[in-house]
Structures are given as C-alpha cells and as structure tokens.
Amino acid sequence: MQLQGVRYGMHGQPPVSASNVDDVERLYQLELRLGADHARRRLAIEKEKEARVLSREGKHLHLENAYSLPSMIRLCLQMSGLYRRAQANSRELRVTENRFILPELPRGLEGLTLLQLSDLHVDMDEANLHAVMETVRPLEYDLCVITGDYRRDTWGDINPAMDGMQRLRNHLNGTVLAILGNHDSVLMVPELEAMGYQMLMNESYRLEKNGESLWIAGVDDPHLYQTDDLEAAIADIPAAATSLLLSHTPEIYQEAAMAGFDLYMCGHTHGGQLCLPGGLPLTLDARCPRHLGRGAWEYDAMQGYTTTGAGTSILNVRLNCPPEVTLHRLTRGPNGVG
C-alpha cells in the first residue's frame, strides 16, 4: 500500500498567526506537510467562519454554532420525558453491514471489507467514546476509513479531540485513512498523522490486495470550509481503476459521479440524530436530496453510503436514529462471484 497523488490547489493567501505555542509548532509542521499557501489559506478560512451561525452570504445555517441550542434541546427533551432515553440511545452503537455489488470488481478485491467511522466528536461524551472503542476492537476488516468530525465544536482548543483520537487509534487495526470535516481544524493534520492516521487532503491512496488495486480519494471539507479539490484528488487515479471517494458530506455527489467514482462514503448528517418515529429526520444540515442523508443510495452509476455516525453533535442525544460503525463489503455479485 502507498500514498500517491499529492497535489494542492491553494495559492497565495495572507499569513495567519497561531494562537499559542502548541499551534505555532503545529503550523510549522502543517506547512511542511501541505505547503505554506494551502495551510495558511485553510486557516484563514477557518478564522473567517469561526463560530458563525449564519453564513456570510445568508444562505446557510450552522446550528452547531448556536450557543443556546444545546440548552433548548435539553429542556424540550426533559419536558417531554425523553432526555434520559435519548442520552442512553447516543451510547448504544450498532455495527451495520453494507454490501457494494460491483460486477466489474477485480477478482482480487472480492470480499474486501472496509470499516467506516464518522462524526466521532470524541471530546463530546466520554461514555460514547468508550462505546466506540469497545465496538471496534473485535471487528475484522482490511482497512479503516474515517470521514471527518473529530472535535465537538467548530472552533477552539483541539487538544481534547486529539487526546480522544489517540486513545481510539490504539483500538484500530492496520492502516487508517482519514479526512477532515467541518468541525476540524487543519492544525490537526500533523498530529493525527503522527498518531498513525493517514490523512487525505485532496489526495489519493492505492490499496493493493491480491495484485489488484482499489483507489481511494479523500477531499477536504466541502460543507463549511468548501476546501475540497476533486480535481487534485483524482489526478493520479487511472481512468479504468475501481475507485472510492471519501467526503465528509454527500453534498458533492454529482461531481463525484461525473468524475467516474464507483463508490462514495460520507457522513456529516448524523442521519438527522433526532428523528420522528420511522427515522424521519427533522433536519440533515446538508445541501443534498433527503434520500442521500442516511444509509445506502445510488446516483447514476455510482453507489454511496451516508453513515449516521458514531458520535453526536450539539448535544449527546439521539431519537429514532441509532449511532453506527459500518462494515462495507465489496463483491462482484450476490454470491460473491461473477
């Protein structure tokens, strides 16, 4: 296995000052990893969008930045008698199994299994993080992929999240590929890589098994920071290769299908997190059709999966929308042959 196709599409932005000694060192390491232009532009975007509830254009709400929202949700759930149940639900992870049937899958990749984690928010709730670690420890898989959101907030100190991610890494086997989400600072990248996470920052990775290859591309956050660069991510992927895109959100599904991806994995929506009976989400916080907001879906020739995520956002509660870790199995057909 090897990392291939490192390219960046960010140029010439004003310098950004780091806020403390730790961040100065992180910025130095980040500039070595991504180049000064990319690193400083991403940090400038983070600063500009920090703690905004309404986007500067006035088109999109970012509910996770509403300071009073957790208290309002907690009060509503307490008044309805659902708070304790909803909190317990957030810690009861399930292992979901999904099959991607690809008739043209190279025979050497038959049965390849990928573990997907997403929306961990590891500094949100200690009990949930413990549940994640206990859930993933006995699982068997060829590769783990994580589709973003490691921090509780979209701004502030990254140290609590980094501590949680270090603890989680001790329970994950083999190679772990990861991307950033809208809660994540680019300053996390060097530290996560030092822990053993291989970050895909608009880059691709070739997974080899039995002499065959699965190409996995990962893009930076398309939702809040809009720093995804699909062109850079696919630059080194052969046209006929079997390919998978990791994106924090389902929002670039059309572009991914046009780029020729076979598979698409994402998270961000939490499946709604608080849903009506039957799993009907109150909100998905994503610019995409609602049927792409949870579970398996298809668009043109591309198959996708949007996980409900392992953690929670805003408040550690869930209703009618269990948290999950997902095992994806690739196969050529119903019987694993073709």
Automatic annotation (TrEMBL):
This is Calcineurin-like phosphoesterase domain-containing protein. Gene3D superfamilies: 3.60.21.10. Keywords: Hydrolase, Metal-binding. Pfam families: Metallophos. One of its GO terms (biological process) is lipid A biosynthetic process. PANTHER family: PHOSPHODIESTERASE YAEI, TRANSMEMBRANE PROTEIN WITH METALLOPHOSPHOESTERASE DOMAIN-RELATED. GO terms for cellular component: membrane. One of its GO terms (molecular function) is metal ion binding. It comes from Halospina denitrificans. Residues 113-271 form the Calcineurin-like phosphoesterase domain.
